[in-house]
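Tutorial sheet, problem 5. The two components below are modelled jointly, 658 residues in total.
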Amino acid sequence: MAAMNMVQALNSAMDVMLGRDPDVLIFGEDVGYFGGVFRVTDGLQKKYGRERVFDTPITEGGIVALAVGMGAYGLRPIVEIQFADYIYPAMDQLISEAARLRYRSGAEWFAPMTVRAPCGGGIFGGQTHSQSPEALFTHVSGLKTVIPSNPYDAKGLLISAIEDDDPVVFLEPKRLYNGPFGGRPDQPAKSWAGHPDAEVPLEHYRVPLGKANIVRAGQAATVLAYGTMVHVALAAVAECGIDAEVIDLRTLSPVDVETIAASVDKTGRCVIVHEATRFSGYGGELCALVQEHCFYRLEAPIERVAGWDTPYPHAFEWQYFPGPDRVVQALRRVVEA
Amino acid sequence: MPEAALHRELLARMWLNRAFEEKVSELYASRVITGLLHLAIGQEAVAVGACSHLRTDDWVLGGHRSHGHAVAKGADVKRLMAEIAGRATGYCGGKGGSMHLVAMDAGFVTATGVVGGQIPLALGAAFAAKEGGRQQVAVVFFGDGAGQSGAFHESLNIASLWRLPLVFVCENNGYAEFTPLSAHTLVERLARHAETYGMPAHTLDGNDLLAVHDAMGKAVSQARAGKGPVFVECLTHRMRGHYEGDPAKYRELSQLAEWKEKDPIARFARMIETRSGLTAAEHGAIEADARARIEDAAQFAIASPWPDADEADTQVSAGHG
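Model answer (structure tokens):
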């Protein structure tokens, strides 16, 4: 075991997989020589060579397409899209090709690739460096979508994603790279040091895809969250004293309906939190699932706490960002209903 | 304009650009400005030389490193500074910020934070300019890092095919973000791509203001005359990191020193000392005037109110404010 922040944990996952499987390789913008804009691939080119960890031009469509084609020859590529906001030129390749190869070929051909991309706000990136586009991927059959919330999960989930035989979009909340962020920018930033989930095995391990994690057990309400919002939700629960159960979904598609339904059946109340815009956001799907599975147990309307239905505004970072105050208000509404 | 006056004017514009960027850097260090900032210190000759031939109603588009393009196009430096600082008095009321500047009153159509995204947008601006029949032109600035994107090649083809009044200005500063151009392509002179698409193309010293000025003069005239697009590749260097805070360890110190020798402002000033009789006192006054204007802009931004959060969900779609 070693204390790791999320950057180190992700790096360790790729290090382990490069070491175990000669078919694994990494490429993307600035990932080789430079080690990645967020340092996630730091040192890997030096250790494994330019044949396996290499830089590409700024050509997202090409990067993803390259990975799809590699799968045909048995390679298992990990690509980095430098910011999730840059992924749109690659959507055609992801949606029309990567996600459909298995179906199109009678399962003879598939795309065992992982697309890593830092997502989310909280770093004043404005409208082209802060987005949370997860719902664009969860909407596509054939893609898996993962968002970790801590170093331990980040490593275990990334290993599972790399080993998975289907394309996985692996979104990394960049506000969590260096510490658990509870949504209070006026308070000093916390690092991962000393956090129980920052104790990470050095060796290979998996956190399974499609399994949620109950990060706080409770009776009064269920909070469904992922990524940065897990920490915001925990902060909100701590501040308001409502005995809420907080579930970190970890994988958005396939989603762990069983864990969600069991919790809402128990509490009868549900708050969904995500940073992405609200309208047609992933919370809409969660809301539908909860009512399909738990309708007769619900004691209150389901609440959604989300980013605003606007581009990420430069001047309103912390108003847009769904902080603990908004989560507390939603929790109060569901328990008082 | 007589040559001596033109030279002084161009020098003043370069200083305005330099002073703007240095002030942004200073305000970032003192946390007045937050966010991701990409400065173009060292590349002033390209922005100034290119924009010096443009009318207010010509259109300019840029990318993530575009403060200088907006300044050179004549945008109000107070409103630009306020926008970067996220203030209500900014061009976009603080909603856009450094990478997403728009100053339509000055013909600065947009900057975008996505590398290369502005290039195909410029096709639309140029098409509209052509349709408008008022001999307007569009100029799009981008870096060498954008030159390997699909959008770049699609745009060169369409501009050439339809003879659009568009000047492509490639600021080849040798680095796509943190990685040298040699790791991105074997075609290190991007002008060669334009030739492939049947477009006149020039590669020149982008730190030589007069070289840029002359080449752009011809390029803009050709576009304005309806003779189609031109590609101007300017070899230059950014003296700061990719973004403010980037220690730029990927760059050799000797390389930085070499480019410092080629500083576009100092070079141009030395040249016009002999050619146009610029005195040290005049030069000092030009620099001081630029710095004073930028200081005013900074004070304007600092004194400006923050926008009201109720404004945040306005202007998302038509009919919503």
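Marking note: Chain B is about 45% helix and 10% strand. Full credit if you identified this.
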